[in-house]
Structure formats: structure tokens, C-alpha cells
Amino acid sequence: MAPIAFEDEADDEAKAKTNQWWPLLRALASMVVLALASMVVLHAFVGPGAAAVDGADARIIMALARDHVPGWREATIAVESPETQGKRSAAFVARAPGASPAAVFAVLRRGPDAVAPAAARAGCAPRMYYSGGFADDARHATISALAGDRVGRDFLATKNVKLARAFGRKICCVHRLATAAPAPKTLRAALAASAVARLDAKTEAAVVETTDDPRLRGLVRVALRSAANWSRSAMMESHVLAHGDLHGWNVLLRDADVKIVDYELAHAGGGAIVDLAMYRRVRDRDNVEALLRAYHACRFGRSGEGGDTYDRGLARRSEVRKMLFDLEIGVANIVLEKLATCATLAGGGCARLDIERFVATARHLDPVDGAAAAPPSAAQISAVGAMYAAISDETRRDAVVDLGVYAASRGRSRA
């Protein structure tokens, strides 16, 4: 016969049994929270189209992860391929449930990548666990931390001055890197570099020839030859190591900490506007000015990225306006490069490029099924020419800053 338990004794016994389970329940709850958080970050980073990967590349990633990611030596690892891939590399996400970190980002590419490891060491990019070759494969591998969510195209569209400052310092972090990098690889990058100093004749001719449409070559030539006379701010007095592809999908954010990824188009001898200009459009004006002030303070101040006392890094109002003007040169460069490539847009080619909409929203018109790929129109070419004319016109410079280069040019042309 079981002993008779009075009500208080039964409650005590039940509480004792419950207390024995609490540590385990708390541990399980923590594991669930960690797993869910990892899934959220992973989904935001790789997108909904991630697919499991098997084969030689997966085995390479698993082997490197076991050797170089802390705590992964005995882990069960799965490899996925994100929906979005780089043009010159293959990207993967490796996961090890129950490990910390629970997931890492891996890239296999042709040739070494000197910029990304340097950016990671400086704190501009996520922590890097490995960068180097492997076995007899000619490719180069990098494995790095998943450092947050991709911010997307609407980053800084709403006012957040603190975040804008953090981003300005992070762009400066990249621009201050001292490491080997190739020359500019895109038309926009070459145009930005020429705003610091005119390119040599051979390089200039090569850049002009990259434009297939002969109607655009004269416009490209004028921009290359004149940009150094147009630019006004201190940030355009010397070259930087530029990222070259700093759209919102290459910016990660977690708990107000910004990291910059994907250095495929990073180049030495760059102009700062190649990275900064795209954040002139579709952004809260207070954010833009805060970003520029923080960038200037970091690049030119004594205390560098983290300090509050900047010496000559403290940008006066007049200097901020000069920076804003130079960003408008970069906006015109973005439109010119888009005009040189828009014929490849599916569903209409350059007919999908409404320049006013593109400048205001960073978006194209919707594609039309079966529409032929249209080349640039005469009106579009005239509109970009008018943008550069407004930049060149001393009497219009205040309007360029206050209204934006496209609006300031509308009296000359419309597209």
C-alpha cells in the first residue's frame, strides 16, 4: 500500500519533481529559440529559393568548415545553394544544427580574393573563418560568418540617423583598406575614378570602346574627360579602394551593426562616389547628410572610425553640399551606365527605362511579355546629356544639390 500523503506533502513532492525538469526545459527552450533565430537569419540571407547541394562542391565546403569553423569538427553539416548567386563565383550556406555558429557562408571563386579577408580583419565585413585554396582545385574558397539580414533596396529610405552614421563609417572602413586590388571593372567605376583624376589616354579609349552604342560613346568620352573638373569635395581629391557594387543586397544588418559583403567588383584607384551615389536616391535627406558627415569624419579625422573628435574631419555645411553635388555626378554616371546596358533588360529593353522613375525610385518599368529589346532612344540619350550639362553649368549647381541632377536638368530635356 502506498503511503498516505497529506495535501501539503503532495504539493511539495510535485514541486520537487517539477523543479528537477526546469533546467532541462529551459535548455530545450533556448535551443528552440536559437534554432528559430538561425532559420530567420538564414532565410533572410539566402532567400526562399535555397536548395540542398550534394557532390564535389558540397564535400569541399564540409571539409573546410570542419577544419576551420570552431565547434564544427564533429558536427553534422548540410550545404545549401542560395537563390541569388554572384556572376564570378558560386555561393553556399553550410549549416550545422546545434553548433555555434549554426550556419556559415561559403564562396568558391576563380582566383584569390585579397579584399574580402582584409575587409574582415578591419571589421568592414563579417568574420572570416577561412580564405585560401584547397587540394588540387584551382579555385579559391572563403568561409565567413552570417552577420545579419540583407537590408534590401529600401535601406535608409526612412529616417534613422544613427544607422546612417554607422553605414557611413563602414563605407569609409572599406575605402581606407590598404590591400592589392584590380583596376576599375565597370563603366560606372571608371567614370567615378575619372572624377578624381583624368584617366590616361589608353585607359580612356578602352573604356569608351566598352560602350556598344556609338551614339553613347561621345557622351562617355565627355564624362570621362570633364568629371575631374566637375567634382568639388575633399573626398574626391584622392582615390580609394572602392567596393564597386554597394547595393542593399550586399549590406548586412544585425542589432545596428552593419557589415559589407561581396567584393567581386572591388577595385583600387576608385572614386568614392561609385559607392556613395546610390544612397543619394530614394533616401531620407537627413540620413544622407548624416551618412556623409560620418564618412568624412572617419576618412579625414584624427580619431578615425570610432571617435567623436574629428579635427579636420568635421565637415562644415559647405563641404556637405559639395559632397552632395559630387553624389549627383555619381547619379548621372549610374544612369549613363544603365543606358549603356538597358537593351539587355528582358521584356522591352531600354523601353523599360523611364529615367525620371529610375532616378526617383531606383526601379524600372514592368516588363512586357514578348516585347522586343529596344535600344536607347534619342530622348533618353538627350536626357542624360542634359544631366551632365546641368552638372557642368556653374549657375545650376545649387539646383543640382537641392533638386537632384535630373530635376535640375529638366529645362533642357525630358525623357
In words, what does this structure look like?
With 415 residues, the protein is α+β, with helices and mostly antiparallel strands. The chain folds into 2 domains: 51-147, Phosphorylase Kinase, domain 1, CATH 3.30.200; 150-409, Transferase(Phosphotransferase) domain 1 (Transferase(Phosphotransferase), domain 1, Orthogonal Bundle), CATH 1.10.510. 46% of the residues lie in helices and 13% in strands. It contains 14 helices and 11 strands. The chain has helices at 7-46, 56-68, 115-122, 161-175, 187-194, 201-209, 214-230, 273-276, 285-300, 317-341, 355-361, 378-392, 397-403, 405-409; strands at residues 51-52, 78-81, 89-95, 103-110, 128-134, 137-145, 149-150, 240-242, 251-254, 257-260, 267-270. Strands 1-2-3-4-6-5 form a 6-stranded antiparallel β-sheet, with helices on both faces. It has a 3-stranded antiparallel β-sheet with strand order 7-9-10. It has a two-stranded antiparallel sheet with strand order 8-11. β3 and β4 (103-110) form a beta hairpin. The N and C termini lie far apart (95 Å).
Descriptors for this entry?
three-stranded antiparallel beta sheet, 2 domains, 14 helices, 415 residues, disordered N terminus, Transferase(Phosphotransferase), domain 1, Phosphorylase Kinase, domain 1, six-stranded antiparallel beta sheet, alpha+beta, globular
SSE diagram, text form:
Elements: H1 7-46, E1 51-52, H2 56-68, E2 78-81, E3 89-95, E4 103-110, H3 115-122, E5 128-134, E6 137-145, E7 149-150, H4 161-175, H5 187-194, H6 201-209, H7 214-230, E8 240-242, E9 251-254, E10 257-260, E11 267-270, H8 273-276, H9 285-300, H10 317-341, H11 355-361, H12 378-392, H13 397-403, H14 405-409
Antiparallel strand pairs: 1-2, 2-3, 3-4, 4-6, 5-6, 7-9, 8-11, 9-10
Helix pairs in contact: 4-9, 5-7, 5-10, 6-7, 7-10, 7-12, 10-12, 10-13
